[in-house]
Amino acid sequence: MSPSPEIDPSRQPPRAGRVLLLLSAAAVGAVALAFFGIQSRARSLAEVANWTDAQAVPTVRVVAPQRGPGEDALVLPGTVSAFDMSSLYPRASGYVAAWHADIGARVTKGEVLATISAPDLDQQLAEAEAQLGQLGAAVQQAQANADLGQATDTRTARLVVQGWSSKEQGDTDRLTAASRTAALAVAKANVTTQEAVVGRLKELTRFEKIVAPFDGVVTARNVDVGDLVAAGGTSGKPLFQVADIHRMRVYVNVPQAYLAALKPGIAATLHLPGAKATVDAKLVTTSNAVAESSRTATVELDADNADGRLWPGAFAEVQFHIPSDPDRLTIPMTAVVFGAHGMQVAAVDGSGRVTVKPVELGRDLGERVQVESGLSAGDRLIDNPLESTQTGDTVTVADGPGKA
């Protein structure tokens, strides 16, 4: 075997020194990682703290009070009615012989709308007139008997005085004359009674013609030739309906809160569905009573209808023009807080500080409400404030200061 080569100790680094070098490098790296980790965590914690502080100050939107218009517009549903409306029922029983006016016809007062054939009524009138003639003849006969009785009594009384006739005969003739005078009075009373019967029947025969009670338009016809109609009732449908539409009445149920402002003379505008044009109206009277079920009162308006645009029974939106104070402030309903302390608003000053103010509200205008007191025109109010908002809170205004 050949001898092994000898290793030079000077060429090999010591093993302990190399290990120490590696441990030193690892320690330096660990220290560097720990330093940078701690620094990053501290930066993150600072950012979280800043974000938390920023979130603690809420961002709000502010609104400003506005001055109200010169009038308050109150819009309510209304019902249009004819100025006069008449339902015509039969007062004579019989068959309809003819009708002369259909729906939509313009009629004048006294114009015949239909004719009823009532032979029974005509026959009753003829019999009553004949009986009146008989009673008239009876009056003539009673008058003649009364005159004869009076003459006989006068003659007998003279003979009794002269002794040519007995007193008994004189009494008999006197009483006979009185009886005949009474019979004449009865006959005349019978004639008067019969004349009343004839007058009533004649009046009923006038109802054989259905006439218009006033100038207007026929809005309903529920009769045809040959129909049997009966007098003496208002059940069922009327024969005709006639409406006076030269001027219309409009009825509106107004909530109790607005009744104090609605006085006779208040102007209004009628908006009809499907029509672009409007109609002017004026409040003329109120019912002076509030319905317990709805807490509303009925008011009546009048409107000219010369062009016939308004129809009876139509629906209309009635816009009342109520005079209002133009200096009165209004705010959105969303700016009001309804809390345990009443109505309040949250005002924001220039530094973002909140001041909660109690306010007294007036009329509800829908999306806005009037403010009677507790507010000035330069206030900036938080829109949709939280119920937990308190005086002294700090907020950030998102869209800048509100404009009055």
UniProtKB/TrEMBL annotation:
Spans annotated as Disordered: 379-404
Compartment annotation: Cell envelope
GO molecular function, a single term: efflux transmembrane transporter activity
Annotated InterPro entries: Beta-barrel_RND_2 (IPR058792), MdtA-like_BSH (IPR058625), MdtA-like_C (IPR058627), RND_pump_MFP (IPR006143)
GO cellular component, one term: efflux pump complex
Start and end residues of each Multidrug resistance protein MdtA-like barrel-sandwich hybrid domain: 88-235
Transmembrane segments: 20-38
Pfam families: Beta-barrel_RND_2, BSH_RND, RND-MFP_C
Domain CusB-like beta-barrel residues, every copy: 251-321
Name of the protein this chain belongs to: Efflux RND transporter periplasmic adaptor subunit
Originating organism: Lichenibacterium minor
